[in-house]
Amino acid sequence: MRTQHYDAVFLGTRTPTLLTAAYLARNGLRVLVLGQGTSEPTSKVGEVELPRNPTMRLALGSPATRHLLDAIGVTPSLKRRASIAPIAIPLRLPSRSLDLERDEALRARTIAREFPEARRAMAAFERRCRLAREAFDAYVDHGGTLQGRGFRATRALRKLERDAVFGGDPLHFDPADELRREPLLVEALELVAAFHSGRVPPASGFGLALAYERALEGAIRIEGGEGWLRRTIVDRIEAYGGDVRPRISADRILLEGKAVSGLRLRTSHEEIGASAVISGIPAGRLLEILPEPVEDSPTAALLRAPRPAFARHLLHVAIAQEGVPRGLEAELFLLPPGSRRALLGLHLTRTAESGGLVWFTVESLVPIADDDPAELRARVLGALREVFHFADEHLRYVHSPNDAHGVTDARTGEVVWSADPSVELSPMETRDDLPRRGAAGLLGLPTELPVDGLLLANGQCLPELGVEGELLAGLEASRRLLEKSGTARFSRLAPFRSRRW
Fold first, then answer.
1. What is the pTM of this model?
2. Which of 4, 219, 231, 449 is most deeply packed, by most CB within 10 A?
3. pLDDT digits (tens, 9 = 90+) for 451-462
């Protein structure tokens, strides 16, 4: 017997998933969030807290982000705690440095100094990116749905795709076409887009334009980090009558005919009723908990579509304070030279300071075949020597949650803090190669799946938009549920369920 019934059950506790759950709870639906094995956003090495996802960019300029944050009343607190670095995109290229400021005039001077031949082409690139972003924001701001369902939604989507900035062909829109004579600069911009979105380059023209515009907002540092934001959102969910169970997972989605009816929990085998399930976990993991009759269905075919192409390797390094170059305040994008191009690129984030040491989190994108942890660690450390010129002298500790070396002392090679349960081994996150479709090539997997009441709201729906894409997918899934909340399937009364708390 099912002892509880929820309007919506969310799988995964990533921040965009929690924000979507809070939005639905605020709108009167009873929600439950299950952890489904999602890692905590931080881990501890001694007394130092290190992020697992240092490149989370909230895209505060996005209408979707603003709408969700405003709806649950988090925006004022977030603005008080947020600070933005003056350098929007700090880049280190094989032959030069390129710091792109948030101020347009200063940015133009930097380009004129480092790439004088590309000055006009870069100005044209930025103009096209701005126009594409303005068209996209206006579309989303007016409630546009990227799936284009219904007459009005389809008409609005066609209007977006026919915008003058795309020249009538959004799938082949290339804001950087005049920059192709400067391949190093184009490669650097693709690198920024890759870390912004997690999408394997090259990005689509529309995706590159949006990623560049969001990156120009600058690295936003929040006092208390992502952990504070997550705790605040969880408090909102519970205040609105929802439940968050980060350590509990479901092992089966239950169906009645072709519609979702509930879930079975993994450890207790308790069955929970649900009118809808919104998945924030990767499609492959969702497929594992679908019932067997779905194995050969169109739903399964969609969920099998993603193919891993690259992986994200994570390395934490502690550098003595005196060994940190001046100006390395928040983050740095590093494009390795050709000899190390097996690393697609690196992104350094300054994450913590303790006892005269500065901790940096280093993300690198590597081909999926390169899975030797020791070799990856050596490659990344080799590339870092180009940033920290006396790395061998100032490097103190090295740790990767992706290999079994533990936290090692860089001077002696001895393992330290290996008994800390928070530094457990975790696999590298993969980056999928998804076919581009619809909405000027931005769409990956659909939000609505063929099973009624089963929705997808993860990074695979709009893979080129990163966190913004997850929030857009979550907002679209929320609208679908709110539209259906008055239908017969949602309106049936159960003794353990309430429409509004």
1. 0.88
2. 449
3. 899 999 998 888
